[in-house]
Amino acid sequence: MGYQIQGNVAIVTGGSQGFGKEFTKLLLKKGAKVAFSDINVEVGRQTESDLQKEFGKENVIFVRADVTNDEDWTSLWDEAEMKLGAVAILVNNAGIGASLGWERNVDIMLKGVGKGTFLALDRMGKNMSGRIINIASIAGIASGFTSKIEVSGYTMAKHGVIGLTRSFPRARPAPFSKYGVKAYALCPWFADTQLLREEISDLSKIERSTKTRVLTVEEVGKSLLTALEKDKDGACYLIFPDVPLIDFPNCNENLFALSVAAGWILKKAGYEPDVIGWPVVLAVGALLLIIFYYIFAILKFMVW
């Protein structure tokens, strides 16, 4: 069934252009009412005018808001509820270019997401229902997509967003479940947006160096609808060209268990190195798989 979009009210931050504008349009087409925000008033008003002509003034509004400012967040939410109704969907999309400094990246794309998320929990939690979609990046899953340490703040922020998103179903004791609110993250590959073009004017350089085309805004927009349809709490979806949407596993959690098991086995065997490297962890993992295979085979034989 998925999460119902029609008849609900959504907030989309950074909604004047790029991903945010596409998310706003798709939600409107699916029957939602949308309040979108941006710090750029001129572009925001123009986008509002265009969307109101297509979808009606009663269905979409623009609110100027800086996601790093608590008062702006409160004003955005209040205006959305006053003009459109109770908010049930939040898309934390606002972002900036990686080259604008690590502190600014963290302020907008991590702390801004956190401010929106916890305000959403407070407001949506009163109705025990709601969905938060955080826009992360492939840079939040895998590091090293740039050779410049100066832009690593982007990677830092996106890793934090994924950590927050995965906390919804997994934190113990579960602090989020009492609100009835779910969250998931979208992690797109490089996409053809104005933000990326401001960083890299010739996108063909990316395609040549990675041997992979950049995504279109429409492809990323479609993934938002798919995520709401799947409605899996804590999911982080990798969006990559020419493959289906990937529900990316929480590798760190799985490898944590394997690493601890490897350390325990080595200690019991009398081998205690200062540091256990990945080759040893993988070797122990392979050994465990072989042991479990033979245990299963023996049990199966005994049952027969």
TrEMBL record:
Pfam family, one: adh_short
GO CC aspect terms: cytoplasm
UniProt-listed Enzyme Commission number(s): 1.1.1.141, 1.1.1.232
Any GO molecular function: 15-hydroxyicosatetraenoate dehydrogenase activity
SUPFAM superfamilies, A to Z: NAD(P)-binding Rossmann-fold domains (SSF51735)
Alphabetically ordered keywords of this record: Membrane, Oxidoreductase, Transmembrane, Transmembrane helix
InterPro entries: NAD(P)-bd_dom_sf, SDR_fam
Record field: catalytic activity: resolvin D2 + NAD(+) = 16-oxoresolvin D2 + NADH + H(+); lipoxin A4 + NAD(+) = 15-oxo-(5S,6R)-dihydroxy-(7E,9E,11Z,13E)-eicosatetraenoate + NADH + H(+); resolvin D2 + NAD(+) = 7-oxoresolvin D2 + NADH + H(+); 15-oxo-(5S,6R)-dihydroxy-(7E,9E,11Z)-eicosatrienoate + NADH + H(+) = (5S,6R,15S)-trihydroxy-(7E,9E,11Z)-eicosatrienoate + NAD(+)
Family: Belongs to the short-chain dehydrogenases/reductases (SDR) family.
Protein name: 15-hydroxyprostaglandin dehydrogenase [NAD(+)]
Organism encoding this protein: Tigriopus californicus
